[in-house]
Specification:
Helix content of chain A: 55-70%
Number of strands of chain A: 3
Largest sheet of chain A: 3 strands, antiparallel
Number of strands of chain B: 0
Strand order of the largest sheet of chain A: 1-3-2
Number of helices of chain B: 3
Distance between the termini of chain B: 67 Å
Structural class of chain B: mainly alpha
Oligomer: heterodimer
Structural class of chain A: alpha+beta
Number of domains of chain A: 2
Protein backbone atom coordinates (compact mmCIF):
# COMPACT_ATOMS: atom_id res chain seq x y z
CA UNK A 1 0.00 0.00 0.00
CA UNK A 2 2.90 2.32 0.80
CA UNK A 3 4.28 1.60 -2.68
CA UNK A 4 0.95 2.54 -4.26
CA UNK A 5 0.98 5.82 -2.34
CA UNK A 6 4.49 6.63 -3.55
CA UNK A 7 3.48 5.69 -7.09
CA UNK A 8 0.61 8.17 -6.80
CA UNK A 9 2.98 10.88 -5.58
CA UNK A 10 5.42 10.25 -8.45
CA UNK A 11 2.59 10.30 -11.00
CA UNK A 12 1.29 13.52 -9.47
CA UNK A 13 4.73 15.17 -9.64
CA UNK A 14 5.14 14.22 -13.31
CA UNK A 15 1.59 15.40 -14.04
CA UNK A 16 2.22 18.78 -12.41
CA UNK A 17 5.47 19.17 -14.36
CA UNK A 18 3.80 18.37 -17.66
CA UNK A 19 0.57 20.28 -17.15
CA UNK A 20 1.49 23.92 -16.54
CA UNK A 21 -2.17 24.90 -16.16
CA UNK A 22 -3.10 25.05 -12.48
CA UNK A 23 -6.81 25.96 -12.42
CA UNK A 24 -8.90 23.99 -9.87
CA UNK A 25 -10.82 22.07 -12.55
CA UNK A 26 -7.75 20.92 -14.54
CA UNK A 27 -5.75 20.09 -11.42
CA UNK A 28 -8.79 18.16 -10.14
CA UNK A 29 -8.78 16.10 -13.33
CA UNK A 30 -5.05 15.50 -12.79
CA UNK A 31 -5.55 14.27 -9.24
CA UNK A 32 -8.42 12.08 -10.39
CA UNK A 33 -6.51 10.47 -13.25
CA UNK A 34 -3.39 9.88 -11.11
CA UNK A 35 -5.56 8.31 -8.40
CA UNK A 36 -7.28 6.09 -10.96
CA UNK A 37 -3.93 5.01 -12.48
CA UNK A 38 -2.49 4.20 -9.05
CA UNK A 39 -5.61 2.21 -8.11
CA UNK A 40 -5.57 0.24 -11.37
CA UNK A 41 -1.84 -0.49 -10.91
CA UNK A 42 -2.61 -1.68 -7.37
CA UNK A 43 -5.46 -3.90 -8.59
CA UNK A 44 -3.25 -5.34 -11.36
CA UNK A 45 -0.61 -6.11 -8.72
CA UNK A 46 2.19 -4.49 -10.72
CA UNK A 47 3.37 -2.12 -7.97
CA UNK A 48 6.31 -4.24 -6.80
CA UNK A 49 10.08 -3.92 -6.54
CA UNK A 50 10.34 -4.40 -10.30
CA UNK A 51 7.56 -2.11 -11.46
CA UNK A 52 8.30 0.75 -9.07
CA UNK A 53 11.97 0.40 -8.08
CA UNK A 54 12.23 3.23 -5.57
CA UNK A 55 14.61 1.18 -3.39
CA UNK A 56 17.41 1.87 -5.90
CA UNK A 57 17.23 5.45 -4.70
CA UNK A 58 20.33 7.64 -4.90
CA UNK A 59 22.64 4.78 -5.92
CA UNK A 60 21.08 4.65 -9.41
CA UNK A 61 21.73 8.39 -9.81
CA UNK A 62 25.47 7.98 -9.20
CA UNK A 63 25.41 4.98 -11.55
CA UNK A 64 23.75 7.12 -14.25
CA UNK A 65 26.44 9.77 -13.82
CA UNK A 66 29.15 7.13 -14.32
CA UNK A 67 27.23 5.63 -17.26
CA UNK A 68 26.94 9.03 -18.88
CA UNK A 69 30.72 9.52 -18.83
CA UNK A 70 31.08 6.06 -20.40
CA UNK A 71 28.53 6.96 -23.09
CA UNK A 72 30.45 10.15 -23.83
CA UNK A 73 33.74 8.26 -24.27
CA UNK A 74 32.05 5.53 -26.33
CA UNK A 75 30.48 8.10 -28.65
CA UNK A 76 33.89 9.53 -29.51
CA UNK A 77 35.17 5.99 -30.03
CA UNK A 78 32.34 5.10 -32.44
CA UNK A 79 32.61 8.42 -34.29
CA UNK A 80 36.31 7.72 -34.89
CA UNK A 81 35.40 4.22 -36.04
CA UNK A 82 32.84 5.51 -38.54
CA UNK A 83 35.27 8.04 -39.97
CA UNK A 84 38.28 5.68 -40.13
CA UNK A 85 36.87 2.15 -40.42
CA UNK A 86 40.09 0.60 -41.77
CA UNK A 87 41.91 1.65 -38.64
CA UNK A 88 39.34 1.01 -35.88
CA UNK A 89 36.52 -1.24 -37.15
CA UNK A 90 37.04 -4.69 -35.55
CA UNK A 91 33.61 -6.23 -34.95
CA UNK A 92 33.44 -9.19 -32.57
CA UNK A 93 30.77 -11.16 -30.78
CA UNK A 94 31.25 -12.67 -27.32
CA UNK A 95 29.36 -13.81 -24.25
CA UNK A 96 29.75 -12.39 -20.75
CA UNK A 97 28.17 -13.55 -17.50
CA UNK A 98 25.88 -11.15 -15.66
CA UNK A 99 26.35 -11.40 -11.89
CA UNK A 100 22.95 -9.85 -11.04
CA UNK A 101 20.36 -12.18 -9.60
CA UNK A 102 17.13 -10.33 -10.32
CA UNK A 103 15.61 -9.77 -13.75
CA UNK A 104 15.58 -6.02 -13.12
CA UNK A 105 19.35 -5.99 -12.50
CA UNK A 106 20.00 -7.98 -15.67
CA UNK A 107 17.80 -5.65 -17.69
CA UNK A 108 19.65 -2.62 -16.31
CA UNK A 109 22.97 -4.27 -17.22
CA UNK A 110 21.87 -5.34 -20.72
CA UNK A 111 20.30 -1.96 -21.44
CA UNK A 112 23.44 -0.17 -20.21
CA UNK A 113 25.51 -2.24 -22.64
CA UNK A 114 23.18 -1.34 -25.50
CA UNK A 115 22.99 2.31 -24.46
CA UNK A 116 26.77 2.59 -24.71
CA UNK A 117 27.48 3.01 -28.43
CA UNK A 118 29.88 0.41 -29.80
CA UNK A 119 28.33 -2.46 -27.86
CA UNK A 120 24.88 -3.99 -28.38
CA UNK A 121 23.25 -6.80 -26.42
CA UNK A 122 22.17 -9.36 -29.01
CA UNK A 123 20.83 -12.08 -26.73
CA UNK A 124 20.02 -12.38 -23.02
CA UNK A 125 19.60 -15.98 -21.88
CA UNK A 126 19.53 -16.58 -18.12
CA UNK A 127 22.68 -14.86 -16.88
CA UNK A 128 24.50 -15.16 -20.21
CA UNK A 129 24.65 -11.89 -22.14
CA UNK A 130 25.72 -12.09 -25.78
CA UNK A 131 27.32 -8.85 -26.90
CA UNK A 132 28.22 -7.56 -30.35
CA UNK A 133 30.96 -4.97 -30.18
CA UNK A 134 32.39 -2.68 -32.80
CA UNK A 135 35.96 -1.92 -31.77
CA UNK A 136 38.58 -3.56 -29.59
CA UNK A 137 38.28 -0.73 -27.05
CA UNK A 138 34.54 -1.19 -26.60
CA UNK A 139 34.90 -4.98 -26.32
CA UNK A 140 37.57 -4.59 -23.64
CA UNK A 141 35.32 -2.20 -21.72
CA UNK A 142 32.63 -4.87 -21.32
CA UNK A 143 35.00 -7.80 -20.81
CA UNK A 144 36.73 -6.02 -17.91
CA UNK A 145 33.44 -6.43 -15.98
CA UNK A 146 33.49 -2.94 -14.50
CA UNK A 147 29.93 -2.17 -15.60
CA UNK A 148 28.71 -5.56 -14.35
CA UNK A 149 30.16 -4.90 -10.87
CA UNK A 150 28.64 -1.43 -10.71
CA UNK A 151 25.15 -2.65 -11.65
CA UNK A 152 25.40 -5.40 -9.04
CA UNK A 153 26.38 -2.79 -6.48
CA UNK A 154 23.40 -0.62 -7.42
CA UNK A 155 21.10 -3.61 -7.01
CA UNK A 156 22.76 -4.53 -3.68
CA UNK A 157 23.06 -8.13 -4.83
CA UNK A 158 26.73 -8.66 -4.19
CA UNK B 1 24.92 36.67 -19.94
CA UNK B 2 22.51 36.31 -22.83
CA UNK B 3 25.45 36.18 -25.23
CA UNK B 4 27.25 33.49 -23.22
CA UNK B 5 24.10 31.35 -23.22
CA UNK B 6 23.64 31.83 -26.96
CA UNK B 7 27.24 30.84 -27.66
CA UNK B 8 26.92 27.78 -25.43
CA UNK B 9 23.72 26.79 -27.24
CA UNK B 10 25.44 27.19 -30.59
CA UNK B 11 28.35 25.02 -29.54
CA UNK B 12 26.16 22.29 -28.06
CA UNK B 13 23.74 22.14 -30.98
CA UNK B 14 26.48 22.24 -33.61
CA UNK B 15 28.32 19.43 -31.80
CA UNK B 16 25.08 17.44 -31.69
CA UNK B 17 24.41 18.08 -35.37
CA UNK B 18 27.94 17.01 -36.25
CA UNK B 19 27.39 13.74 -34.39
CA UNK B 20 24.10 13.24 -36.26
CA UNK B 21 25.95 13.81 -39.52
CA UNK B 22 28.57 11.21 -38.58
CA UNK B 23 25.71 8.87 -37.61
CA UNK B 24 24.09 9.25 -41.03
CA UNK B 25 27.42 8.71 -42.73
CA UNK B 26 28.03 5.61 -40.62
CA UNK B 27 24.58 4.19 -41.41
CA UNK B 28 25.45 4.32 -45.10
CA UNK B 29 29.08 3.30 -44.90
CA UNK B 30 29.35 0.50 -42.33
CA UNK B 31 29.31 -3.07 -43.66
CA UNK B 32 26.42 -4.88 -41.94
CA UNK B 33 23.29 -4.44 -39.84
CA UNK B 34 24.94 -4.96 -36.47
CA UNK B 35 27.63 -2.33 -37.00
CA UNK B 36 24.97 0.05 -38.32
CA UNK B 37 23.05 -0.33 -35.07
CA UNK B 38 26.17 0.95 -33.29
CA UNK B 39 26.19 4.03 -35.50
CA UNK B 40 22.52 4.62 -34.74
CA UNK B 41 23.41 4.47 -31.04
CA UNK B 42 25.25 7.76 -31.37
CA UNK B 43 22.10 9.56 -32.53
CA UNK B 44 20.15 8.05 -29.63
CA UNK B 45 22.57 9.09 -26.92
CA UNK B 46 25.08 11.92 -27.10
CA UNK B 47 23.61 13.71 -30.14
CA UNK B 48 20.14 13.85 -28.54
CA UNK B 49 21.67 14.91 -25.23
CA UNK B 50 23.72 17.77 -26.73
CA UNK B 51 20.81 19.14 -28.77
CA UNK B 52 18.35 18.94 -25.87
CA UNK B 53 20.74 20.61 -23.44
CA UNK B 54 21.27 23.34 -26.01
CA UNK B 55 17.50 23.83 -26.25
CA UNK B 56 17.15 23.75 -22.46
CA UNK B 57 19.69 26.59 -22.16
CA UNK B 58 17.44 28.69 -24.42
CA UNK B 59 14.22 27.97 -22.52
CA UNK B 60 15.79 28.79 -19.15
CA UNK B 61 14.39 27.78 -15.78
CA UNK B 62 10.84 26.96 -16.92
CA UNK B 63 8.41 24.07 -17.28
CA UNK B 64 9.57 23.71 -20.89
CA UNK B 65 13.03 22.75 -19.62
CA UNK B 66 11.49 20.16 -17.29
CA UNK B 67 9.63 18.68 -20.26
CA UNK B 68 12.78 18.64 -22.40
CA UNK B 69 14.67 16.80 -19.67
CA UNK B 70 11.81 14.32 -19.26
CA UNK B 71 11.85 13.59 -23.01
CA UNK B 72 15.61 13.04 -22.72
CA UNK B 73 15.09 10.54 -19.88
CA UNK B 74 12.42 8.68 -21.89
CA UNK B 75 14.69 8.51 -24.95
CA UNK B 76 17.50 7.10 -22.80
CA UNK B 77 15.15 4.42 -21.45
CA UNK B 78 13.47 3.40 -24.72
CA UNK B 79 16.28 3.59 -27.29
CA UNK B 80 18.31 0.64 -25.93
CA UNK B 81 15.13 -1.42 -25.81
CA UNK B 82 14.43 -0.79 -29.49
CA UNK B 83 18.08 -1.40 -30.43
CA UNK B 84 17.95 -4.69 -28.54
CA UNK B 85 14.67 -5.68 -30.25
CA UNK B 86 16.25 -5.01 -33.65
CA UNK B 87 19.49 -6.87 -32.89
CA UNK B 88 17.70 -9.78 -31.23
CA UNK B 89 15.20 -10.15 -34.12
CA UNK B 90 17.96 -10.22 -36.73
CA UNK B 91 19.98 -12.67 -34.64
CA UNK B 92 17.03 -15.03 -34.16
CA UNK B 93 16.19 -14.77 -37.86
CA UNK B 94 19.71 -16.11 -38.52
CA UNK B 95 21.52 -13.04 -39.83
CA UNK B 96 25.22 -13.66 -39.17
CA UNK B 97 27.34 -10.67 -38.19
CA UNK B 98 30.29 -9.95 -40.48
CA UNK B 99 33.26 -10.55 -38.22
CA UNK B 100 36.37 -11.06 -40.35
CA UNK B 101 38.00 -9.32 -43.25
CA UNK B 102 38.75 -6.18 -41.26
CA UNK B 103 42.05 -4.56 -40.47
CA UNK B 104 45.34 -4.93 -42.31
CA UNK B 105 45.09 -7.60 -45.00
CA UNK B 106 47.31 -10.59 -44.21
CA UNK B 107 49.33 -11.81 -47.16
CA UNK B 108 48.79 -15.45 -47.95
CA UNK B 109 50.99 -17.67 -50.05
CA UNK B 110 48.58 -17.48 -52.96
CA UNK B 111 49.07 -13.77 -53.34
CA UNK B 112 52.56 -14.02 -54.80
Amino acid sequence: MLKTLSLFLVLMAVWLLLSGIYTPLITGFGVGSCLLSALIAYRMDVVDREGHPLHLGPRIITYWAWLFVEIFKANIDVAKCVLFPQKYLRPSIFTVTASQKSDLGRVIYANSITLTPGTVTVDLDGNQVMVHSMTEVSAEGIKSGDMDRRVTKVMEEA
Amino acid sequence: MELVLDIATWILMLAGSLLLLITGYGLLRLPDLYTRIHAGGMADTLATFLIFIGLALQSGFTLVTAKLLLVLVFVFFTSPTSSYALAQASFVAGLKPKLDGFGPVKKTDDDA
